[in-house]
Amino acid sequence: MNCQNHLSRVLFVAAIGMSASIGPSQTAAAAEPYRIVNSSQTMGTGGIDYVYADSEGRRLYVPRGNQILAFDLDTLKSVGAITNAGGHGVAVDPKSHHGFSSSGPVTMFDTETLALIKKIAVQGRPDGILFEPASERVYVFSHSQPNATLLDPKDGSIVGTIDLGGAPEQAASDEQGRLYVDLEDKDSIAVVDVKTLKVTAHYDLAGKGGGPGGLGLDVKNHILFAMCHEPATCVVLSADDGKILATLPIGNGTDSGGFNPKTMEAFSSQRDGTLTIIKENSPTSFEVEQTVQTKQGAKTCTLDTKKNQIILIATERAPAPAASAGGTAPATNTPANAERPAGERRGGRGGPGFLDILVVGR
Question: CATH code at 51?
Answer without folding.
Answer: 2.130.10.10
